[in-house]
Design a protein that fits this description.
Chain B: Belongs to the binding-protein-dependent transport system permease family. Chain B: Its main location: membrane. Chain B: It is found in: Cell membrane; Membrane. The complex is a heterodimer of chains A (581) and B (326). Chain A has 22 helices and 22 strands. With 581 residues, chain A is an alpha/beta fold. Chain A has two domains: 254 residues, 3-Layer(aba) Sandwich (Rossmann fold), CATH 3.40.50; 251 residues, P-loop containing nucleotide triphosphate hydrolases (Rossmann fold, 3-Layer(aba) Sandwich). In chain A, the strands form five sheets. A six-stranded mixed β-sheet of chain A has the order 6-7-8-3-9-10, with helices on both faces. In chain A, β9 and β10 form a beta hairpin. Chain A is globular, with a radius of gyration of 26 Å. Chain B is an all-alpha fold and 326 residues long. In chain B, α9 runs antiparallel to α10. The chains are: A alpha/beta (581), B mainly alpha (326). Chains A and B meet through α2, α3 and α5 of A and α9 and α10 of B.
């Protein structure tokens, strides 16, 4: 690619009103003895005062590195190797440490990705504000208390949070507090680095609304860094798309949506769809209803040899029956209420069926997964797998159950031991559950890799987790779950940590397992779009109760419960952004 | 307040349990000290009934029910009456312990606290100036010195500073010629005698604290709240002390509690090498002389000191970390 300047559709701010002017900026990660990695590659753009710009890219695109460089927060081994960053006409690369520190008040501020961890756990919120006021002296000593209260109010919190410690606040509240602290600097430029990624869907939506409202009322210039094109298109007027260290497209949000120029932008866009639409198609995928109508499988060719029992062998297999199940946890502290995580939930998961369990965090969906796998015991109700009463199982019997019911976890980055090769990771469960040894076990491991599409299998078997991408890791996790030839997979948010471009592949794999081999699946998620793609039936949970159930397409297209509607509204959707404008 | 009351309650409870165990464990063992003494004697010939009675009278065979014994034992513990030492007859155990204790606490206790404070401060500086000489110099010397075996450092110091250069006295807590009392002369003498053992403890333990604190702080320096504090333009000193160091010290407190608890019990080696008349020296002699009353009192002391140290660290934790207060 020869594009060093942004592609067509560039919005250049009026010359006299430029706040930030970045020219040919490069950032490299240089560690001694290692090949330097070019994270940001000759990026140029300008930002007008009062603009709200999105910076979008998948993991590894260099977007966060760029954000840190713009605020001079990059730390070794990252270093700016080339270019200029003119902030209000002055190159911030030339500022010495003290000038830079002063510049942070009334200059540029940053809100970090994990706002939950951005606050000092041993200082009260009030002290966080006082530290800022004392460091810069821009607020008189008498006005400080009032100003702090005013600032937390701006982000929608009451003054009582000032006396709390960060550990006493929820994730959303902490992120709001860190936005308020950044605001207390009265910055001209705010950089938001994935401000809502670690938050629950519904909270995410509310925090984004706050950010948008503040940007208008306080009138700062803002950069919103996100992996989620949907969120960015909804919030900002202009979007820069980053890929492999370069800005591949820089255009108004409307143009990105309607006339995306770069193939990468088009690819990102193609993975968005409205879960409410009549038919949905993302690359490599059509929604289940449409497929059924047209009577075709998602894929035409059967994957080579089966490593899980063929579908026919399973026809007589057992359903999971959950009846009137409740789970109440004892009060976290004395004098507080007991926590009802799951309340009177009943459903059946038939052999070969795919059932979605959706809800925001705290809705009890992960607790249900623990109950079904026997990790926790329900307070009331019964859970049966075929003739087996799951709730009464002891350790040894649980092991038998886990032969048939396996979990796939959310975070592929921590679900694999970084010290073990893929082969070792897969051999353990194969040996434990099937009793195969030596060459037989190895053959089985290679078959599993083949099933999950990690080919050439010999190569992947020898790899360590860090040599794999997120999607590949999640495939290994799925292969591990398949090792015992289970009848049921319980997939807890299996794609939420993955880049959009990788999600489709993993979803397709889950779908194949169900369609080709008859593995039934309980798909736990907050992501309604993926639920629509891979499940037939859906159960919407709110505070431990089932508020809505039915065919997935039917429920999502015509939701009857308010909670379902709010979940649907929280789905970032570029197309809706267009409608709103 | 509620937190402190809770911890205090727990402290009293564990203290009672330790004291009780100290009573029951020896009684669970078969035989008695008298039987042991008679068995020894009987190897040389038959033991008459009169000898047996004499031995039992000398050692004091318990009378009354186990419960009565327990109550009188509790009473003795509370009034610090541990009986008379066998080896240093007719001194009472309590008077011996109370003479030795100030030396141990004064020397090992103070030096342990000093090593922790000093090591933590140096560790903070090293982590904050990572990669500079301020980091490499203390880290390297610290890890080098702490690999020296304890007694080896002690012997080296004794040999060079004491024997060759005659800068410091080589044994005892004060010179045989000076009279104990609250005079400037005597105190100066005690301090002079304390320097070599103190230096030994400092040299061998400082490195661990430096490295522990440095590594913990390098971790917290990478935490988001430190980055965010920098992004907010807080002064370097504030970020280093109130954000990074303040959080890094928390895990080290546990180690500090263990070190404090080991002060009384762990002073044997240093006091033996330097002929320092503290608890460790006493314990060593009690074991050698099979002085049961003294040993029992000392073991109880060691247990209690570990409990007190843990209690203090618990309170410190409560003060420093709001998350533990809930």
């Amino acid at each position: 690619m020869s594009m060093t300047t942004p592609a067509s559709g560039t919005v250049s701010a009026a010359e006299n009103d430029v706040l930030l002017d970045v020219r040919e900026l490069s950032v490299v990660y240089a560690s001694p003895g290692m090949e330097p990695v070019q994270a940001v590659d000759r990026v140029s753009f300008t930002l007008g005062r009062g603009e709200f710009v999105g910076l979008v890219g998948e993991s590894g695109s260099g977007k966060s590195t760029l954000g840190f460089a713009l605020t001079r927060l990059q730390k070794a081994p990252a270093q700016i190797s080339n270019g200029r960053i003119l902030f209000g006409g002055r190159d911030i690369r030339e500022l010495d440490a003290e000038e830079l520190r002063r510049q942070r008040q009334g200059g540029f501020a940053m809100v970090l990705q994990s706002g939950m961890n951005a606050l000092n756990p041993v200082r009260t919120i009030r002290n966080h504000f006082m530290d800022v006021f004392r460091a810069h002296g821009h607020v008189g000593a008498h006005e400080r208390a009032g100003r702090a209260a005013e600032l937390v109010q701006k982000v929608g919190l009451g003054p009582e949070v000032l006396d709390r410690y960060p550990g006493e606040l929820s994730g959303g509240m902490r992120q709001r507090v860190s936005i308020a602290i950044a605001l207390s600097l009265e910055p001209q430029l705010m950089v938001f680095d994935e401000p809502t990624t670690a938050l629950d869907v519904l909270v995410q939506h509310a925090v984004m609304d706050t950010i948008q409202a503040l940007q208008k009322s306080e009138n700062f210039t803002a950069i919103l860094i996100s992996h989620d094109l949907g969120i960015v298109l909804e919030a900002t007027e202009r979007v820069m798309v980053m890929h492999e260290g370069r800005i591949v497209e820089d255009a108004r949000s409307v143009d990105i949506l309607e006339r995306p120029q770069d193939p990468y932008t088009r690819m990102l866009l193609s993975h968005y769809a409205d879960p409410r639409a009549e038919t949905i198609s993302i690359p490599g995928f059509v929604d289940m209803g449409t497929r059924k109508r047209e009577g075709k499988a998602r894929i035409d060719v059967t994957t080579t040899r089966p490593t899980v029992s063929a579908r026919q062998a399973r026809s007589a297999d057992s359903a999971i029956v959950v009846e009137g199940v409740s789970k109440v946890y004892p009060a976290p502290r004395r004098g507080e209420e007991k926590v009802t995580a799951v309340s009177d939930v009943s459903f059946r998961l038939e052999p070969g069926e795919a059932l979605a369990l959706v809800g925001a965090s705290g809705s009890g969906k992960s607790t249900l997964a623990k109950l079904i796998t026997g990790v926790e015991k329900p307070t009331a109700g019964s859970i049966r797998f075929g003739d087996l009463d799951v709730t009464g199982l002891r350790r040894r019997a649980l092991r038998e159950l886990h032969k048939d019911v396996q979990m796939v976890f959310q975070d592929p980055y921590s679900a694999l031991n970084p010290l073990h090769t893929v082969e070792y990771t897969l051999t353990r469960p194969v040996v434990n559950y099937t009793g195969l040894r030596g060459a037989d076990a190895r053959r089985r491991v290679l078959e599993l890799l083949d099933t999950v599409g990690l080919t050439p299998v010999e190569q992947f078997a020898a790899k360590l987790p860090h040599q794999l991408s997120g999607g590949q890791r999640q495939r290994v996790v799925i292969a591990r779950a398949l090792a015992s030839d289970p009848q049921v997979l319980i997939a807890d948010e299996p794609v939420s940590m993955l880049d959009v471009s990788l999600r489709a592949g993993v979803l397709a794999l889950l779908e194949d397992l169900r369609e080709q081999w008859g593995v039934s699946m309980l798909y736990i998620t907050h992501d309604l779009l993926s639920a629509r793609l891979v499940t037939e039936n859906i159960l919407v949970l709110n505070r431990g109760r089932v508020v809505e159930r039915g065919e997935t397409a039917q429920v999502l297209r015509h939701p009857s419960d308010e909670y379902t509607v709010s979940l649907l509204d929280a789905v970032p959707n570029p197309a809706r952004a267009k409608g709103a404008r | 307040m509620k937190y402190i009351a809770q911890k205090l309650g727990l402290f009293v409870l564990t203290l009672w349990a330790a004291v009780t165990l100290n009573f029951f464990l020896p009684r669970l063992m078969p035989g008695s000290p008298a039987d042991a003494a008679i068995a020894k004697l009987s190897q040389n010939g038959p033991v008459t009934e009169a000898t047996r009675a004499a031995i039992e009278a000398q050692l004091g065979v318990p009378t009354g029910s186990l419960w009565d014994q327990y109550l009188s034992y509790l009473h003795q513990v509370v009034t610090l009456d541990f009986g008379v030492s066998y080896t240093f007859y007719p001194q009472t155990v309590s008077s011996m312990v109370s003479t030795a204790l100030p030396y141990t606490i004064g020397l090992v206790g103070i030096v342990t606290v000093l090593a922790f404070v000093l090591g933590t401060l140096i560790g903070v500086a090293a982590a904050w100036k990572r990669g500079t000489w301020l980091d490499s110099l203390p880290t390297l010397t610290g890890s080098f010195l702490s690999t020296f075996p304890y007694f080896w450092t002690a012997l080296l110091l004794l040999f060079f500073l004491g024997y060759v250069l005659h800068w410091f006295p080589t044994t005892g807590a004060y010179a045989a010629t000076s009279t104990p009392g609250f005079t400037a002369e005597f105190i100066g003498d005690v301090l002079l005698h304390a320097i070599l053992p103190a230096l030994t403890i400092l040299i061998t333990s400082l490195g661990g604290w430096i490295i522990g604190m440095r590594n913990a702080m390098i971790n917290t320096l990478g935490d988001d709240y430190v980055t965010f504090a920098e992004a907010n333009g807080l002064r370097g000193r504030t970020v280093a002390i109130r954000y990074a160091a303040r959080n890094a010290i928390l895990p080290n407190l546990t180690g500090f509690g263990l070190a404090l608890g080991g002060v009384v019990g762990g002073s044997i080696l240093v006091e033996q090498v330097f002929g320092y008349p503290g608890i460790g020296y006493l314990l060593f002699n009690a074991v050698i002389g099979q002085d049961y009353p003294l040993m029992q009192a000392l073991f109880l002391m060691i247990t209690v000191s570990v409990l007190i140290a843990n209690f203090l660290v618990d309170i410190l934790y409560g003060v420093l970390d709001p998350r533990t207060r809930r």
